[in-house]
Amino acid sequence: MATFTHRTPVMFQHCDPAGIVFYPRYFEMINAVVETFFDRALDWSFATLHGSERMGVPMGRIDANFHAASRLGDVLDWSLTIGRIGRGSAEIEITGACGAEARLSVRGTLVLVDLDKMKSRPWPEARRAALERYTKENTA
Amino acid sequence: MATFTHRTPVMFQHCDPAGIVFYPRYFEMINAVVETFFDRALDWSFATLHGSERMGVPMGRIDANFHAASRLGDVLDWSLTIGRIGRGSAEIEITGACGAEARLSVRGTLVLVDLDKMKSRPWPEARRAALERYTKENTA
Amino acid sequence: MATFTHRTPVMFQHCDPAGIVFYPRYFEMINAVVETFFDRALDWSFATLHGSERMGVPMGRIDANFHAASRLGDVLDWSLTIGRIGRGSAEIEITGACGAEARLSVRGTLVLVDLDKMKSRPWPEARRAALERYTKENTA
Amino acid sequence: MATFTHRTPVMFQHCDPAGIVFYPRYFEMINAVVETFFDRALDWSFATLHGSERMGVPMGRIDANFHAASRLGDVLDWSLTIGRIGRGSAEIEITGACGAEARLSVRGTLVLVDLDKMKSRPWPEARRAALERYTKENTA
Q1: Residue A122: DSSP 8-state
Q2: Among B75, B38, B41, B74, which Cα is nearest to B56's?
Q3: Which of A28, A60, A65 faces B61 most closely, judged by CB atoms?
Q4: Nearest residue on chain A to B116, alpha-carbon basis
Q5: Mean of the per-residue pLDDT values for chain B?
Q6: Residue in D46, D12, D2 with CA at minimum distance from that of residue D137
Q7: Given strand C75-85, what is the order of strands in its sheet?
Q8: Is the whole model's pTM more than 0.80, yes or no?
Q9: What InterPro entries does UniProt report for this protein, alphabetically (chains A, B, C, D) (predicted)?
Q10: What confidence tens digit (pLDDT) does each residue in B34-90 have?
Q11: Under DSSP, is residue D3 helix (H, G, I), strand (E, B) or coil?
């Protein structure tokens, strides 16, 4: 199985008055992890996706478990794998850790949509094949 | 059952290049719904909670389903009810709709923590009683 | 002179680990003040402006002075007036106060742009007349 | 003169419905440039500054000129130099460019404050010396 990894330092802008990451900022980080995954692993930049192709990959559902708080100065290591791939959707699993300590686990469902019609559409074949390299069923 | 309601206009700052609400901004709105609920329904402002009392109510888990996209100019109507109340936690259910159309449904678990020890602590009795007025089991 | 006023409570999401408003969040508030001014004072919603009309009003310049920190629970009262109005631009002056205490003063230049060409364009005559009601030279 | 440089990719989360960077997000980027400068150039992390030392460096004033719009997928190159250094303040000049095209120029005044008293305090001598290496008067 191929796992996509990414690293985010916890910056001042992510933290709340309690000095810990404010959870909506985690979702900004997660969006950036997905965006970077699309760019580097699928060679499908959001500039291309949203620009010339007029498509998007909004979340249909997202479920997050927060295991421990993250603080200013922590470095978060993200791991992303793909679960079941549907006709025009994909389950995505993302974990964030600081060193050996798990901080959050997220499961979401990405849906490929046509931005002009705001309707779901099937994955282009080559993109689907690229996604499959990151499914748990595969061994890289 | 008492239901707490709140209204949020979808502003420019919430929207992404696709012209729809960027989902991390929904979580900012949801945090504001919870913060306003604490202030108005529980008479427990976050300024008091985080300030003199040195407590916080981070989410331990949050699960969101996005039913339809929201656009600039939409007005979102939020409904909040409380589910099971634990010793120092509470399940919270929030729905957001625009007119008759459901936009998102969120279930989360708030955890009351002592900010200095970053450990869970029990609800003060009066606060727990106030929370109970918003549980589904109750009829207001 | 007509002055447009608006009120923003300082919420948890605006505050940094020092417990005060993080200054980029002030600019989100200021954008919301301008957006609300366009909607209510000029009857020109950003949904219409950005949607069917394909125009925008980005800032060409913004200069902010921060006089005193704002804290969670403060309520900010904003005052907006218009300065010199150019062919397709307008100077805007915004102050934010909490009670009698000035918190920040902002001067900016809005530029009306055609979003498809990303070029400046002149104010529609009726919009310009509406803007003029908020200039300092006028007495309402 | 030593110049501190930093690079930020324009991500989805920075962009507005017009598909360009929403200007409050530029201020988040600028805060991150300053935070990274403190960490790498001054060896003074915000975690140390805000944590054990209980100090902060809020902006007393900030003046930004936006020369051209930035879009999703652009890469912004930041340059930071220090202007006049006061007893407990420092002028900071930051420019952001994409390739050869200037996008924005920012001048601000950082103020070193004691977070508990919320009062200005003088730069520690070693920190001031480190700052001076980035002033325009110096040649590195």
Answers
A1: P
A2: B38
A3: A65
A4: A18
A5: 95
A6: D2
A7: C4-9, C75-85, C89-98, C101-111, C59-66, D59-66, D101-111, D89-98, D75-85, D4-9
A8: yes
A9: HotDog_dom_sf (IPR029069)
A10: 999 999 999 999 999 999 999 999 999 999 999 999 999 999 999 999 999 999 999
A11: coil
- With beta carbons under 8 A apart, name residues in chain C contacting B73: 45-48, 51
Q: What CATH number is attached to the domain comprising B53?
A: 3.10.129.10
Residue with tokens 């993250």, as numbered in its chain? A70
Can you tell me the distance from the alpha carbon of A100 to that of A94, in angstroms, rounded to the nearest whole number? 15
- Whether residue D9 lies inside any domain: the answer is yes
Residue C74 in 3-state DSSP? coil
| Nearest Cα residue in chain C from B15 | C47
Report pLDDT digits (tens) over A103-140: 999 999 999 999 999 899 999 999 999 999 999 765 44
Our count of domains for chain C comes to 1
In a domain, A48, yes or no: yes
Q: Do A11 and D35 touch (CB under 8 A)?
A: yes
Token code pair at residue D85? 């250094």
SS3 string, chain B, reads CCCEEEEEECCHHHECCCCEECHHHHHHHHHHHHHHHHHHCCCCCHHHHHCCCCEECCEEEEEEEECCCCECCCEEEEEEEEEEECCCEEEEEEEEEECCEEEEEEEEEEECEECCCCEECCCCHHHHHHHHCCECCCCC
Q: Is residue B52 less than 8 Å (CB to CB) from chain C?
A: no
> Is residue C138 domain-resident?
no
Domain that holds residue C17: 4-132
Whether the CB of B71 is below 8 Å from some CB of chain C: the reply is yes
Instruction: Report CB contact under 8 Å: C28, D28.
Output: no
Residues A5-14 as b or e (16 or more Cβ within 10 Å = b) = ebebebbbbb
